[in-house]
Structures are given as C-alpha cells and as structure tokens.
C-alpha cells in the first residue's frame, strides 16, 4: 500500500492549527486525494488551492462517512486534530471513526507532532506491504 489518500478532520478550535499544518505540508500532499469533513474541507481546499472531497460536517454524519470510506479502502491515512479540552456531543461518532481506523490498520495522527511524523515518514512514498486485515473468519461465523 502507498498512501494515495488522506482524510482530514479537525474540531472547531483545532481548525486553524490543521490549516497551518496543511499549508506547511502542501508539497507532501500534492499527489494525495484529500477527503475532509464539512467546514474543514472548504478551508483545506482554500489553503491548498485545489479540490477536496468535502463531506458532511462531523456531527451531521461526516465522521461516519469517513469511517465508511476507510472500510471501503478509499482512505489510506487519517489526520484528526481533535480537541481534548472541549466536550463533543458527537463523541460516539468520533470513537467509531477511530475504531474503524484501528480495525482497518490505517495510520492515524491526532495532533501536529504525530501528523508531522506520518507525513514525513519514508514509508509514505514507498509501497508498504502490510495487507488489509482479513475478516473472513469473522464474517463467515454462524450465529
């Protein structure tokens, strides 16, 4: 797997930080398909001067849309700047998104430092031969 697509999500107080990060890492993201939730998608598109797949706002289902795209294999990496100081009314959706990312073994960054490590990893431009998990034993179980 090479990283061909990335999902970008940021809570309201973290949007400026994500936009600053995206702008600083524009060259690393030139070849990537970008998905983002709601307002974040518009802001990222403006900052990069390119098209971004802007989905619904997170609380309106955008987090779940990104989770579905991860499960489909359309998203290879998740950058999610979440705000640990603010309560989130859609916390179950956030936990579900992070669970799906872990389940499908995609790299996840939840802050600027980890996002820097991911985007600058030499593995990002190489073929990474970690196969997608095989859940056939799970899906073939009888109840």
What does this structure look like?
With about 140 residues, the chain is of the alpha/beta class. It has one domain: Rossmann fold. About 45% of the residues lie in helices and about 15% in strands. The chain is built from seven helices and five strands; from the N terminus they run βααβαβαβαβαα. The chain has a five-stranded parallel sheet, with helices on both faces. Helix 1 packs parallel to helix 3 and helix 4 packs parallel to helix 5. It is globular and about 50 Å long.
Describe the secondary-structure layout.
Blueprint (H helix, E strand, L loop, with lengths): L4 E6 L4 H10 L1 H4 L3 E5 H11 L4 E3 L6 H11 L4 E5 L9 H13 L4 E2 L2 H8 L16 H4 L4
Helix pairs in contact: 1-3, 4-5
**Amount of beta strand:** 5-15%
Number of E-type strands: 5
Which CATH-level-2 architecture?
Answer: 3-Layer(aba) Sandwich
Tally of alpha and pi helices = 7
In the predicted model, the low-confidence regions spanning at least 5 consecutive residues are none
In total, how many domains does the architecture comprise? 1
Q: Shape, please? A: globular
**CATH topology heading:** Rossmann fold
CATH H-tier superfamily:
Methylglyoxal synthase-like domain
């Amino acid at each position: 797997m090479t990283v061909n697509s990335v999902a970008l999500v940021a809570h309201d107080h973290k949007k400026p930080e994500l936009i600053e990060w995206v702008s600083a890492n524009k060259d690393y993201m030139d070849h990537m398909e970008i998905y983002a939730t709601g307002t974040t998608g518009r802001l990222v598109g403006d900052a990069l001067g390119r098209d971004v797949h802007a989905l619904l706002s997170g609380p309106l289902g955008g987090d779940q849309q990104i989770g579905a795209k991860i499960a489909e294999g359309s998203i290879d990496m998740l950058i999610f700047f979440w705000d640990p100081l603010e309560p989130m009314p859609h916390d179950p959706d956030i936990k579900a998104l992070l669970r799906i990312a872990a389940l499908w073994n995609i790299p996840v960054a939840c802050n600027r430092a980890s996002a820097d490590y991911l985007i600058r990893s030499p593995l990002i431009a190489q073929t990474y031969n970690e196969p997608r998990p095989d859940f056939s034993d799970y899906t073939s179980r009888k109840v």
